[in-house]
């Protein structure tokens, strides 16, 4: 498939905005973030046609944070697979529609816009735009339809993902998490760290709290990481890759 790559059990595909990650196990498949409905379609087609697996093998979806470009395809995917959804406990207020994600500063919005134009992102289809339920758009109080069954906590494991641990990394948003695997020295960084055309950066686009972001990165820097799966851009395999983060 175009724009895809395999890193052990982790399969990467380019999504409409951020990447699509599928973690393939013998009995179950997990998905990390589902950007838009068309990303959910890509995942289904990949699992069924490329992997030759039953789409009901997709048992778990983990959301790294509540921004629209990470959660808007969740309802589409759960309706077709019955996968369970997990997110950090502090995402509850956003994913249930109880609160809107905070509106960040004008300069933060402007940098986000420049980033989108420079990266030619996002490229959502017309269906994405029509179906976009507005969940996760700062300022709009609208959650996903799917009921999240597992609320994750810092330092704990993720049901169905043996070896992976939750690292709560507030900063980009207050509900951001990374997933870390000590044995594999691998990290899903969500939007805490992005790969901006080959440059690894702390994500200050639409940032919620810069000081918290730096604190979270100090926490991540304690972890040995040789494989980074960022929330934007391509994965990077490199010894002690977090040393390269600006
Ligand atoms: Zn984000």
In words, what does this structure look like?
The protein contains seven helices and 15 strands. The chain is 24% helix and 26% strand. With 246 residues, the chain is an alpha/beta fold. The strands form three sheets. Strands 1-2-3-4-5-6-7 form a seven-stranded mixed β-sheet, with helices on one face. The protein has a six-stranded mixed β-sheet with strand order 8-9-10-11-14-15, with no helix packed on it. Helix 1 runs parallel beside helix 3. The mean pLDDT is 92. A hairpin with a 2-residue loop joins strand 8 and strand 9. It has a single domain, classed as Ribonuclease Z/Hydroxyacylglutathione hydrolase-like (Metallo-beta-lactamase, Chain A, 4-Layer Sandwich). The site of zinc ion has 4 residues, from loops.
How are the secondary structure elements laid out?
Elements lengths: L3 E4 L2 E4 L6 E5 L4 E4 L4 H14 L7 E5 L5 H4 L2 H8 L2 E5 L3 H4 L10 H13 L7 H6 L18 E3 L4 E2 L2 E8 L8 E5 L4 E5 L2 E4 L2 E4 L7 H11 L6 E4 L5 E2 L9
Parallel strand pairs: 4-5, 5-6, 6-7, 11-14
Antiparallel strand pairs: 1-2, 2-3, 3-4, 8-9, 9-10, 10-11, 12-13, 14-15
The structure holds zinc ion.
The site of zinc ion has 4 residues, from loops.
């Amino acid at each position: 498939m175009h724009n895809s790559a395999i890193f052990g059990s982790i399969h990467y595909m380019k999504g409409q905005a951020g990447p699509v990650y599928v973690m393939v196990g013998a009995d179950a498949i997990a998905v990390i973030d589902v950007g838009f409905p068309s990303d959910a379609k890509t995942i289904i087609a990949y699992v069924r046609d490329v992997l030759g697996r039953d789409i009901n093998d997709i048992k778990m979806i983990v959301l790294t944070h509540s921004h629209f470009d990470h959660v808007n395809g969740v309802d589409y995917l759960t309706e077709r697979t019955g996968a369970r959804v997990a997110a950090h406990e502090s995402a509850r207020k956003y994913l249930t529609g109880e609160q809107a994600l905070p509106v960040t500063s004008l300069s933060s919005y402007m940098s986000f816009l420049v980033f989108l134009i420079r990266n030619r992102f996002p490229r959502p289809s017309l269906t994405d735009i029509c179906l976009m339920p507005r969940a996760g758009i700062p300022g709009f109080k609208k959650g996903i339809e799917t009921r999240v069954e597992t609320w994750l906590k810092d330092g704990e494991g993720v049901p169905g993902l043996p070896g992976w641990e939750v690292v709560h990394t507030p900063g980009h948003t207050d509900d951001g998490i990374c997933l870390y695997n000590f044995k594999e020295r691998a990290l899903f960084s969500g939007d805490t760290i992005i790969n901006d055309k080959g440059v690894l950066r702390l994500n200050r686009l639409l940032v919620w709290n810069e000081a918290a972001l730096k604190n979270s990165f100090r926490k991540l820097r304690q972890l040995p990481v040789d494989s980074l799966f960022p929330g934007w851009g391509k994965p990077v395999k490199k010894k002690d890759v977090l040393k390269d983060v600006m």
